[in-house]
Design a protein that fits this description.
Layout lengths: L3 H12 L4 E5 L1 H5 L12 H4 L2 H4 L3 H7 L8 H14 L4 H11 L4 E5 L5 H5 L4 E3 L2 E8 L5 E3 L2 H17 L2 H8 L8 E5 L9 H10 L2 E5 L11 H7 L3 E6 L11 E4 L2 H20 L1
Parallel strand pairs: 1-2, 1-7, 2-3, 7-8, 8-9
Antiparallel strand pairs: 4-5, 4-6
Helix pairs in contact: 1-13, 6-9, 7-13, 9-10, 11-12
Bound molecules: adenosine-5-diphosphoribose.
């Protein structure tokens, strides 16, 4: 169970914060059933990131250059876990801080849309959002409803299975300009999204929460350094190890779905205490 001391310390730090930024990774969505990347049994433990983690998987697919081995299993797994995924208590706790009136923005490396669905309104998705498509021809972006994405995804996997690339291209050509659309997510080697906005948030917060990330991927992993340099306090919550040891003022080894609700409950108690 989570040690009471750091939980109380974290709550008091949050209670006094003027501007909070939560920097999140796959660990925050793990309790929603979405596998992380680098944990044992994670996605990059079972699939090759060099084959499947780059953006060229889409360009190759649409160029009829076929797909790397494992593509079908990879896409099918991503689709099936997303279909079941809903915000977990960790997402909910971050949304609770916003509804309690705290100034909080979430900078996430996750593409699963769960922070928005969980209720946070200021979400910066530096690795994109799988529910958003982008046209390869005109750059137009369109947000898809969950069911629409899953319908498209199932059809795409079906055409991939049948090797029916013609129908696949037809399915993907859904922009008004007639162009082909792909998921608006960032693969290795592709430019990240909204990074200047993310850096500005990190530089102007007085409390950074680092939640469920190994800090293995740049430039996203530079963000805690920006906050530290600007004088922010840092709290890290990670289920297995602290990945920002030298920066964190408070380090909690716990699942975010366990620790964050406890911390937010303590913040409520502190506030009640002050109001009495
Ligand atoms: N609660 C808190 N932390 C958790 C939990 C949990 N329930 N489950 C796992 N973790 C921790 C793991 O200990 C690990 O340190 O979350 C971290 C997940 O690390 P990664 O799998 O590397 O995921 P992430 O840091 O988000 O990866 C960054 O790499 O492949 C790219 O684009 C991909 O956005 C991703 C980026």
């Amino acid at each position: 169970m989570t040690d009471e001391g750091p939980i109380r310390e974290a709550a008091s730090m949050i209670g006094g914060a003027k501007k909070i930024v939560a920097f999140t990774g796959a660990g925050v969505s793990e309790e929603s059933g979405i596998p992380t990347f680098r944990d044992p049994g994670g996605l990059w433990d079972r699939f090759d990131p060099n084959e499947l983690g780059g953006g060229d998987i889409f360009s190759n697919l649409f160029a009829g250059a076929g797909t790397p081995s494992g593509s079908l299993e990879f896409m099918s797994e991503i689709l099936s876990v997303l279909k079941e995924a809903t915000p977990n208590p960790g997402h909910q706790a971050l949304a609770d801080l916003e509804s309690m009136g705290f100034s909080i923005s979430v900078i996430t490396q996750n593409i699963d849309n769960l922070h928005r669905e969980g209720g946070n309104s200021r979400v910066i998705e530096v690795h994109g959002n799988i529910f958003r498509l982008v046209c390869l021809n005109c750059g137009e972006k369109q947000m898809l409803a969950r069911e629409e994405l899953f319908r498209l995804g199932d059809e795409l996997v079906g055409f991939l299975e049948a090797g029916d690339f013609e129908s696949l291209i037809k399915l993907a050509s859904r922009c008004g300009c007639g162009g082909i659309c792909r998921p608006d997510v960032v693969g290795f080697g592709e430019p990240v999204q909204d990074m200047p906005q993310a850096i500005e948030e990190a530089k102007t917060c007085d409390l950074l929460l680092i939640l469920g990330t190994s800090g293995a991927v740049y430039p996203a992993a530079y963000l805690p350094g920006h906050a530290k340099k600007a004088g922010a306090k840092i709290i890290e919550i990670n289920a297995t190890q602290c990945c920002f040891q030298e920066m964190a003022d408070i380090r909690i080894i716990a699942k975010t779905g366990d620790a964050l609700p406890l911390i937010v409950e303590r913040v409520r108690e502190l506030r009640r205490g002050i109001q009495q």
